[in-house]
Design a protein that fits this description.
The complex is a heterodimer of chains A (208) and B (616). Chain A has 208 residues and is mainly alpha-helical. Chain A is built from six helices and no strands. The N and C termini of chain A lie far apart (56 Å). Chain B is 64% helix and 1% strand. In chain B, strands 1-2 form a two-stranded antiparallel ribbon. In chain B, helix 4 runs antiparallel to helix 5, helix 6 runs antiparallel to helix 7 and helix 7 crosses helix 13. The mean pLDDT of chain B is 94. Classes of the chains: A mainly alpha (208), B mainly alpha (616). Chains A and B meet through helix 1 and helix 5 of A and helix 5, helix 6, helix 7 and helix 19 of B.
């Protein structure tokens, strides 16, 4: 309990720096809980989407809209970004700050790539397929579910970006390590949600 | 300024108490106005529109802005002390939770001053809450205000969960935690899994109203019943968010004043968990008349009735705790003992309503109103009164006047029974809820008058409680560590009010009712688990306040983003989402500041740790 606030001992990082202090452990526990809440949030959005996915109101249907190669590319990029965030954590556990920052930066760049593809996709739908928020219950549910995920990606990019800044300002310490760790957890979570979106929204949209 | 920047859980508790009490007062005034309108047939005290606004705001205010924050006040004041912690897991987040709740509540209540309050009922059923039937900004205040307030509740819940998981004193295993801590833990878990659902529901309704989405609009392919599902998958667990903390309070107060340990502690714990679990399984019992079909109705009917089993276990455990005890009827204990039969009655009518065929008769009558007020007022509010009388000396260092406390109890209790007991019969005779008035000579006249008189009496009870607070506050703080002399849990082992760091040395817990156990072993204080040392504290910060102001501004901006102000400057400001962006920039800016500058906190050295309470 007394190790609540600690600088790295003798400049050396402990084995798992994210769990070295009480504050770090609190952060990890709190973040797991937060992700539990996020699961309900996305669960409700998925339920809404599933309830309304057939209600196209004479607008475009999922089958007419979706272009799987584009979505597959976005999926690939996002899955790879999860892998690079794992490499980042491995670099952190070896105490290599620069490698950590590099892998995090690659993760951010991949995230930006994914977000770019999503914005392009939305733009195409709105401009060329006349598929907007107000078109049908299906369109409202689609943009809300996928858009919420996109907003999470955008938030993650800003967050990890700030953490990279902190790594250079303050170095890899027992204060910054838990932040890196929970942001990586967040990134994996976003990735898992996307896997469900890819299946439930896009694949099911193409076949069902 | 001190109060705006504080991250101390004990001060945040006081803030929650003041803000929750303020909104409780507003909700109470709304209730009195409703009862004045219904006092006699064909009354025209308020218009039908204002009546709709009153019932909507009464329900919404009482649940989200009145009782829940007062629960959070008690939790913040008591839980860290009960588990022997110096602080909560996330002091900053704790403060943020309070400020977002407060600004959400203020936004919601601004609606009275800015063109009409929400008027679609506290459940905001679609399509009644859609733009077509609710053209004013009322429902926008509801969706956006509740969204902001709900955010505060959610992060408060995460904070309590993490605190209880990671910050317990050495020796305090889960099965040694006091019952109030247990119910806080389970309540927070329900909050965590229920609130995101209403978050999504409110977003969908906001999108329907402001962006023209079609979630609940049948013409666009939407489905109004979807709102009911989302609302109640949150709304039913919400009932247990409200009542479980009351169960926890009763489980602390009754053993203290019966001088006996709680009967069946472990069955109480598992009953609590079971109630929370079943609470998520029964949401559609609010929707029997929606047309779900007989199979769904039967399943939800049975699962609802199952909840009576763990609840019955609790009731009998309280009775067995009192059995053979040396009971002292202090004001706190009067409320606790009064809670038991009243809550049983709310439970029995609950089982009646759970029977789907019977519910077709009871639905939307005053029988339902009577049922849930027996549960929420007769359960939760009595529990809160009990808890406030019980822990007041710990929070403020002053014992509330027992005489006034007993007067509060009797006026409130008699008023409560007068108000709501007769409503069962009004309901059975066919009086509908949510109607602005009724015809004379339908046998409704006398019972409604009785009900209104009872409501005034409850108002008198609340005023007596306020008088008690004022009188007590004028006295010097002189409460001893253990003012009831039979305190069982850790909070009674430290000064009243507790010093800023709570425990000079983290206590070593050797069993259930840790402090009682030490007292029985002949000790006067807890055995410390660590030597006296420098105590690390988090720094005060205005950032949670600033972040909440930002969210508040963004919410207002979003609400008026479609309006024509007849003024080019204002139109440009709101219609281009500039106000929204400014608000979000304030919030994200504060988040970035928080990210860039670490809070290293400060230390209280051993020579500065005097054992007196440092706070008024």
């Amino acid at each position: 309990m007394t190790t609540s606030h600690a600088e790295p001992v003798d400049g050396k990082l402990p084995h798992e720096p994210e769990k070295a202090t009480l504050e770090g452990r609190n952060k990890l526990v709190g973040f797991w809980l937060f992700l539990g809440g996020e699961t309900v949030l996305f669960g409700t959005l998925f339920a809404t989407f599933l309830a309304l996915r057939g209600q196209t109101n004479d607008g475009p249907t999922a089958n007419e809209l979706f272009h799987l190669p584009l979505v597959a590319a976005a999926t690939f990029i996002l899955l790879v970004s999860s892998l690079t965030s794992v490499f980042a954590i491995q670099a952190m556990h070896k105490g290599k700050r620069n490698a950590l920052a590099l892998w995090l930066s690659i993760t951010v760049v991949l995230g930006l790539g994914f977000l770019g593809l999503e914005i392009y996709e939305f733009y195409e739908y709105v401009k060329h397929k006349e598929f907007g928020m107000t078109t049908s219950a299906f369109s409202s549910a689609f943009y809300t579910l996928v858009g919420f995920h996109g907003a999470h990606v955008a938030f993650g990019i800003m967050w990890i970006g700030l953490i990279i800044g902190q790594l250079f300002r303050k170095g890899l310490t027992v204060v910054t390590a838990p932040k890196v760790y929970v942001s990586a957890m967040y990134w994996h979570f976003i990735d898992v949600v996307w896997v469900f979106i890819f299946t439930v929204v896009y694949l099911l949209g193409k076949v069902g | 300024m001190d109060w705006i920047t504080t991250v101390d859980h004990k001060k945040i508790a006081v803030l929650y108490l003041i803000a929750g009490g303020f909104f409780f007062g507003i909700g109470g005034i709304e209730a009195i106005l409703i009862r004045i309108q219904l006092m006699k047939p064909m009354n025209n005290f308020v218009s039908a529109q204002v009546f709709n606004e009153l019932i909507t705001m009464h329900g919404t205010t009482m649940i989200f802005l009145g009782v829940m924050p007062i629960i959070f006040a008690v939790m913040n004041a008591v839980v860290p002390l009960q588990i022997g912690a110096r602080d909560v897991a996330f002091p900053f987040v704790n403060a943020l939770g309070f400020w977002t709740f407060l600004f959400g509540g203020l936004l919601l209540n601004l609606s009275w001053l800015m063109g009409g309050a929400p008027d679609a009922g506290w459940t905001s059923y679609t399509p009644l809450s859609g733009s077509e039937y609710s053209g004013t900004h009322g429902v926008d205040f509801y969706t956006i205000g509740l969204q902001i307030a709900g955010l505060g509740t959610l992060i408060g819940g995460i904070n309590f969960l993490a605190t209880i998981i990671t910050m317990r004193a050495p020796g305090m295993s889960y099965m040694r935690m006091p019952m109030f801590t247990w119910t806080t833990f389970i309540t927070s878990a329900i909050i965590l899994f229920a609130f995101p659902a209403i978050t999504v529901g409110l977003v969908l309704l906001t999108f329907d109203r402001i962006l023209g989405a079609n979630f609940f609009d049948v013409a666009g392919g939407g489905n109004p019943v979807l709102w009911q599902h989302i609302f109640w998958i949150f709304g039913h667990p919400e009932v247990y968010i409200l009542i479980l903390p009351a169960f926890g309070i009763i489980s602390e107060v009754i053993p203290t004043f019966a001088r006996k340990r709680l009967f069946g502690y472990s069955s109480m714990v598992f009953a609590t968990i079971l109630i929370a679990f079943l609470g998520f399984m029964v949401w559609a019992h609010h929707m029997f008349t929606t047309g779900l079909g007989t199979v769904a109705n039967a399943l939800f009917s049975i699962s609802t009735m199952l909840i009576a089993v763990p609840t019955g276990i609790k009731i009998f455990n309280w009775l067995f705790t009192m059995w053979g005890g040396q009971i002292r009827f202090t004001a706190a204990n009067l409320f606790a003992v009064g809670f038991v039969p009243t809550f049983v009655m709310g439970g029995v009518t609950g089982v009646m309503l759970a029977s789907a065929p019977a519910d077709f008769q009871f639905h939307d009558t005053y029988f339902v109103v009577a049922h849930f007020h027996y549960v929420i007022v007769g359960g939760l509010v009595l529990g809160l009164f009990s808890g406030l009388h019980y822990w007041w000396p710990k929070m403020f260092g002053r014992v509330l006047s027992e005489t006034l406390g007993k007067w509060t109890f009797w006026t409130f209790m008699i008023g409560f029974q007068l108000t709501f007991f007769v409503q069962h019969f009004l309901g059975l005779m066919g009086m509908q809820r949510r109607i602005v008035t009724y015809l004379p000579n339908q046998d409704f006249d006398l019972l409604n008058l009785v009900s209104s008189v009872g409501a005034f009496l409850m108002g008198v009870g609340v005023i007596l409680f306020l008088v008690n607070i004022v009188i007590t506050t004028r006295k010097p703080a002189d409460a001893p560590n253990d003012p009831w002399e039979d305190g069982r849990t850790l909070e009674w082992s430290i000064p009243s009010p507790p010093p800023e760091y709570n425990f000079k040395q983290t206590p070593l817990v050797r069993g259930i009712d840790a402090y009682w156990k030490e007292k029985m072993a002949g000790h006067t204080e807890m055995t410390p688990a660590e030597p006296v040392g420098s105590i690390h504290m988090p720094s005060a910060t205005p950032l949670p306040f600033v972040m909440s102001v930002g969210i508040f501004i963004a919410g207002l901006g979003l609400m008026f983003s479609k309006d024509d102000f007849g003024n080019a400057f204002m139109n440009g400001l709101f219609n281009n989402y500039i106000v929204v962006i400014i608000g979000l920039l304030i919030t994200f800016g504060a988040m970035a500041l928080r990210s860039l500058y670490d809070d290293h906190g400060w230390h209280i050295e051993p020579e500065d740790q005097d054992e007196k309470g440092v706070r008024t």
